[in-house]
Amino acid sequence: MIPYLEKMSTFLNKLLLGVAGITMIGMVLLTCANIFLRCVWVPIKGVYELMGFFGAIVTAFALGYTQAKRGHVGIDIVVNQFSAKAQRILNGITYCICMVFFALAGWQTVKWGTTIWQTGEVTETLRIIFYPFIYGVALGCFILCLVFLVDLLKVLIGEKVPNK
Amino acid sequence: MNLVLVGIIGIFVLLLVLFFLGMPVGFAMAVVGFWGFCYAVSLKAALNMVATDLWFTFSKYGLTVIPLFVLMGYLAFNSGIAERLYNAAYTWVGHWPGGLAIATIGADELFAAICGSNTATAATMGAVALPQMEKYHYDPKLSSGTVATGGTLGTVMPPSVVIIVIGLQTEQSIVKLFLGGILPAILMGILFVLTILVLCRLRPNFGPVGPKTSFNEKIKSLSGVIEAIAIFFLVIGGLFFGLFTPTEAGAVGVFCTFIVSVATHGLTWKAFMSSVVETLKISCMVFVLVAGAIIFGRFLAVTRIPFLVADFATSLPVPPYVILVFVLLIYLIGGCVMDALGFLVLTIPIFFPLGMALGFDPVWYGIILTMVTTLGAITPPVGVNLYVVKALAPEIDIGTIFKSVSFFVVASIISIIILIIFPQIVLVIPGMVR
């Protein structure tokens, strides 16, 4: 079951990272196009809103990959002093707390996005719906949970997990 | 339980326990902030706060500047611009005692002007400069410290990720903070060069003299510098004259760096993809730190600890500068035990209101905090630049790198003291902007 979950996690993280990368390049092009059109004609409407939403997708979709590659900064000078077994236990506690926290955060974000959807809220300038982007942030949280779950399961069966 | 006591438990017990468990700093701040808010207000309010803070942080227009400037730095990192900068600097000063080390600092200064990351600057210049310095028999006691410390210029010279984070967290103008960083970065560079000259005067074997170059060669080498200077002036000039927002400046910087990299055949498809992936990782890490700090800051605001600390400090019968020295010492020690940016975002909710209550200029205070934060990147045991040098030159003993850096730490501290005595150095350029 763990290899299957790990493969799924890796696939989903790479997929989301690809979407995040394309979105980021889109942000560059959109901003440059806006500057150019502002100089020669009129600015693109709603760039401010779109850039914020794209930024949310870029960050949320990179959450899982960054954790899988141990890209988040932490303090490891203390934990490195412990035995391998103690480190496994401490890592397990960390993964468990983070998994629960991001599951709650993701679930709450879905609830909030649903409220935005049901109330029909739209953006101020473009008058477009934006709840899909909120769901995107929730998806990023859930994929991050999956990364923590895989690491936690590996700790529980005694498999080596890359430390920070 | 008294809310102040809850806050103290949150900071000094829970947060430290989670840090020492090895939990990433951003996650730990978010978890403790959530717990504290839940305790002080309610579970429902805490859940709502986490969801909305995550969304509003990730979707904040102002924060979109981070991936853009990081991408600009990584494109420069992967495209060979650094090598041309280094060659130009070496052609001009390579025949001086310690000339290669001075060239490294000069190239660092120029590269920092298009790259906002301290580690990227150290890694880029290290990859170019360390083999050269080894070839010319430079002592690792000079070369390793030069590369590690030169990287810190990337944090002070705009564009800088640390400055952006300070600006966003404290709601100060990023443009003014960027402009405020220019002269301090130049001052730091001058002091690093003086340190190299003094070391080479005392120990000539540290940096043997290199071959002389003709005037023609010197002029020819400048072609490698022009593109970097042009990008810097376009980006920072656009900000200075109000042509761009910081996010737009970042996008223009990415676009221009990409064009230059492609035009000079410096950027392969693989290097481009690597730049995108690394940018996503670094940006995500910074966003998580900022989101964690915001959630943690909500909890601190409920406990009123930042205001109480500010009130207490201002009531002390000592001059504000004594308190400033105390704050800087905390940053120095904090930077020794944890990631400098992590420590900065953690402490800003407490120490920025304190600085304002003491009457310091926000731009000047932001730059001073940036400079002391950069020291965290070169102070053992967790100074990230030290390990960048170790990774690039595994044959150099880590103890030698620590010792080498210590000479430059003195120079950095002197530059901070100069800026405290002469705050105008920071404020003169931002003062020209309305």
Could you describe the 3D structure shown?
The complex is a heterodimer of chains A (164) and B (434). Chain A has 164 residues and is an all-alpha fold. Chain A is 74% helix and 0% strand. Chain A has four helices and no strands. Chain A has helices spanning 2-40, 47-68, 84-118, 131-156. The model of chain A has no long low-confidence stretch (mean pLDDT 91). With 434 residues, chain B is mainly alpha-helical. Helices cover 78% and strands 0% of the residues of chain B. Chain B contains 22 helices and no strands. In chain B, helix 3 runs antiparallel to helix 15 (269-303), helix 4 (65-78) runs parallel beside helix 7 and helix 6 (99-112) runs antiparallel to helix 11. The mean pLDDT of chain B is 87. Chains A and B meet through helix 1, helix 2, helix 3 and helix 4 of A and helix 1, helix 2, helix 3, helix 4 and helix 14 of B.
Characteristics of this structure?
heterodimer, A: about 160 residues, mainly alpha, 4 helices, about 75% helix, elongated, B: about 425 residues, globular
Outline of chain A:
elongated
| Shape by Cα distribution of chain B | globular
Structural Rg of chain A: 20 Å
Q: Specify the structural class of chain B.
A: mainly alpha
User: How is the biggest beta sheet of chain A arranged?
Assistant: none
Summed over residues and divided by their number, the pLDDT of chain A gives a mean of 91
Task: Tell me the greatest interface.
Answer: A-B, 56 and 57 residues
Q: Write down the secondary-structure element order of chain B.
A: HHHHHHHHHHHHHHHHHHHHHH
Helical amount of chain B: over 70%
Q: Give the helix tally of chain B.
A: 22
Give a quick account of the main beta sheet of chain B: strands, pairing sense, barrel closure: none
Q: How big a fraction of the residues of chain B is strand?
A: under 5%
Number of helices of chain A: 4
Residues in helix, % of chain A: over 70%
Q: Kindly report how far apart the N and C termini of chain A lie.
A: 25 Å
Instruction: List unreliable stretches of 5+ residues of chain B.
Output: none
Give the tally of β-strands of chain A. 0
Multimeric state of these chains?
A: heterodimer
Radius of gyration of chain B from CA coordinates:
22 Å
The residue ranges of chain A in which pLDDT falls below 50 over 5 or more consecutive positions are none
